[in-house]
Amino acid sequence: MSINTYFTDFLASIRLTATQKSESKRGHKTLRERLLADDDLSEIIVSTFLQGSYKRSTAVRPLGDKRADVDIIVVTDLNRSEVSPIDALEMFEPFVEKHYKGKWERQGRSIGISLSYVDLDIVVTSAPSEAGERMMKSLSVTTDLALEDIVTRNYDWRLNSAWLEPNLELGNSVLAESIRSAPEWQGEPLWIPDRDANTWEETHPLEQIRWTREKNKNTNGHYVNVVKALKWWRTLKLTAIKYPKGYPVEHMIGDCCPDNIESVAEGVVATLRNFVDNYSTYRNNGTVPRFPDRGVPSHNVWHRITFDDFLSFYDSTKEYCGLAEEAFNETSLRLQTEKWRDIFGDKFPFAPNDDDSNSGGNSSGPTGGFTPRQNLSEPKQERFA
Amino acid sequence: MINEPSNDIRLGRRALESIKEYTLLNDLVYDRDLSRWVLHFSIRGYYQPTDEVPVMTNWYCLLSNEYPFGSIEIYPDSLNGIETTFQHMSYNATSDRAWRTGNICIKTNLGGWGRNLFNSEPFTASDRLHWNVTRALAWVTAAAEGHLAQDGDPYEFPDIPKSKTSTFVFNETSEGFEAWSEIPDEHGVFEYFVPTLNSNIRVIERVVGKKVGLQYEWGSAIKKSTRLSEGRGYWLRLKSTPVLSPWQIPMNFSELATACQVQGINFFQILRENLGKNSLTDEVSHIALGFPVGQYINSSDQRMHWFHFEWPKLKDDIKGYKKGTSSYYREKVDRILSMQVSLRWTISENWAKDQLTARGRLSNGFDLLRFCIIGAGAIGSSFAELLARLGCHSITVVDHDIVATGNFSRHTLDMRSCTKFKAAELANRLNLIFPFMETLGKTNRLNWVAKSNSDFYRDYDIFVDATGDDGVLAALCSNVTEDNQLLVSLSINVNASELYCFLGVTGGDDLFVRFNELMKPWSAKQQREEHSPVFVLENVGCWHPVFPARIDDIFGLLAPTIRQLEQHFIDGGNTRLVVIKREETGNINIIS
């Protein structure tokens, strides 16, 4: 049983709230306007854009009081062989002091700004090539819309100069065939400060977005939801385990989730099973698997994960894999929802008890919802006027 | 702007997952034009599929944003849904949306298929949609197995998409149907008029054939109404409801001809021969189709019912035929019958008394009694209103007084009647309630009315004294003496906490003496408790005192008297006094 509507409603309660999304966009928009109005910085800025799980539609609501995190890339034309990452970041400090006094701090590779509902992480890049500059300025890069907002039956996101935003108000935009079939930019990695801002290192956020788009298409639109569901599980249930978390978990799901899944439930079960099966040898051999970054294959997304981390993560995943398979194969609707709730917590809705549901639906027999009732439900007060 | 379904809507459609026969095709989408959430699903049945009902049927369910309140409608999918019109379904045509117009009627508990299933529609978020979809499955099954309408089920007309609000009204009864069985005519002319009292109504007066002339009986208001216009139509008599199988009203001439053909009636031929022989085709505005119906399918009590549609007019006159000749008219009729137009059906209603009083009526026969109400004040007007709306069509009101605005705090009349006579105004008002009302107003004192008609005291079955006047009551007691007459006196005490309903059975003791005897304990009590009753003055400058009773008190005390009368009519009984008393707590007690 895949009980799709239960998963649909669970996902609706764990994705970013409308406020978080609109605040992310507003925060980015204001920041960009201020940057371009700044006399000093406007000289060096090529463009800005949102990246990260928000953009890929794989972000989940933070637990408790934590605010949502949004990454903003500020593309500069600073020559990376002349300017160090630390100096590049320092160039932005007067700006954030002026506009976000008391709300900002240096965080290794980025500058963090705390707004009311979201936290903005400014990551500064060095100069791209000329071709790269053109791409960075195009609407397909600078748009604030997330993948789920853009990709529908009639619309898509394309990394080319012709791409336009869909009209979300009307909701009936159709992507012209010429845009759909126009070739996409190859793109090139961007150079950002490493974790401690000592050196420049490569990253390829646009390739990650494109990879996600393709994977989502190949999974009947379920992939981003499988990611959200499993990220939620990881944060909620694996509290004793520090790493992996965030993007490394998403990347792993991307590698383990099979194509052509028919539902989120199926994707969750298959992803966990594939992880357990594919990496059992690593576990037994005492090594950590390698996950090459999309677009920068030399970069191992799991490079910070120790074997102890991996071991704990693997064993927990194996345990929950068993639970997920049980849930997926459960025939009683009520029991199935109970089991999913063991994995996803109480944001996953309960089904009513099979035998006392008010509508007489039985889970046994072909005439499931058709059996004349034995018990009357609460008689409704008849009122007339 | 509505973007996300509410938690209640989500819960409602999650609950559908427990229905084994149900499969979700497309999850909730908000349709801004219709302001509805749209759910697309399929149902798998366990019946033998038929040409019209396949095993898998697809449906669209439209939910109001106020779910679990608001509307829920279920329509067949245009592509893989039911394409014909069945019973308990709106006319099922294609539309400009993904679903057809045949909204299925699943809320009723009537009829064999509906009764089998549980209870009435629940209004909780988890249950309501589930109930509706389960009912839809039952409906589809009944449609496939051919028992959406069975013998003994209440008869239901096919749904008729109507283009106009104007309404044809006729008066067909079971007795009238017996007369129809004697009438050999199969078609003819009918005459109607539009009354001034309501320009949306077309009242049919006469139905005429070669051998028959039938005149409908109408009550005072319609009989006496002036006319805005008059018209004629042509009627045909059918053997049964004109439908295309299973239950679709014909929507053009060709479909109508087919539906008649099934009954062995050649619709085209009848119209050609009769409308096409003279100028009748120009004079006739509508065609009427009459057929027998009973309250239940195949029940024995039948009456005629009529459907009406506009007889189309040609846009241009025809050329090549000499005007006024029968070939000219014949050609006209032929052209009209071959027009590719939708039939414009009107609303057609049977205004027979038993059809109009279905919502609330008295025991058989009580409504046929002849009432005379003396006194058209607070009590008299309210009592008359109750009787009329319960279907008592024969009421005479006697009162000499004039209507004053101050009356309206506890009267049924309104400002339109000021300065006019109460009896006449009240009679007019009652006559306008129902088309069968025959109410008369006599503007005079009782003794004068009696003097001018020697049969007056014998002309009614029930006399109601609503004057509070001993003189009137005494006169009635002396003169209402025939067997099986009833003398009723209704009055209230000064603060309307007690209503005295005296039921006087004729042919026994002196009723006035009896009345006083029965009232004695109540009068004595009144003396003790209210020896200085407080009256109010009507208005500044007027010394005429009025009793201060409120309309809510009057209604509350008066309403139970109807049942007292009705019970007496059924069971009989002796002369007695029934006191309807309002306690200080507000409880109403009936003391007899």
What's a quick, concise take on this entry?
The complex is a heterodimer of chains A (385) and B (592). Chain A has 385 residues and is of the alpha+beta class.
Q: Give the strand tally of chain B.
A: 22
Average residue-wise pLDDT of chain B = 91
Name the biggest interface. Answer: A-B, 32 and 34 residues
Q: Averaging pLDDT over every residue of chain A, what do you get?
A: 87
**Rg from Cα of chain A:** 24 Å
Structural class by SSE content of chain A: alpha+beta
Tell me the overall shape of chain B: globular
What is the count of helical runs of chain A? 17
Low-confidence stretches of chain A: 356-379
- Assembly type of the chains comes to heterodimer
Main sheet overview of chain B: 8 strands, mixed
Report the helical percentage of chain B.
25-40%
**How widely separated are the two ends of chain B?**
63 Å
**H/E element sequence of chain A:** HHHEHEHHEEEHHHHEEHHHHHEEHH
Q: What form of chain A results from the Cα inertia axes? A: globular
Largest sheet of chain A: 5 strands, mixed
- The span between the termini of chain A is 46 Å
State the helical fraction of chain A: 40-55%
Poorly predicted ranges of chain B (pLDDT <50, ≥5 residues)? none
Protein described:
The complex is a heterodimer of chains A (385) and B (592). Chain A has 385 residues and is α+β, with helices and mostly antiparallel strands. Chain A has 17 helices and 9 strands. Chain A has helices at residues 4-14, 18-37, 41-44, 53-56, 85-90, 93-99, 130-137, 139-142, 147-150, 177-181, 205-218, 223-237, 247-256, 264-278, 280-285, 307-329, 333-344, and strands at residues 45-51, 68-76, 104-107, 110-114, 118-125, 190-193, 200-203, 292-293, 296-300. In chain A, the strands form 3 sheets. Chain A has a 5-stranded mixed beta sheet. Chain A is globular and about 65 Å long. With 592 residues, chain B is of the alpha/beta class. Chain B has 16 helices and 22 strands. Chain B is globular. The termini of chain B are far apart. The A-B interface holds A 1, 3-6, 8-9, 12, 18, 333, 349, 351-352, 354, 357-361, 363, 366-370, 372-373, 376-377, 379-380, 382 and B 3-4, 10-11, 13-22, 24, 27, 46, 116-120, 122-124, 126-127, 130-131, 133-134, 137-138, 141.
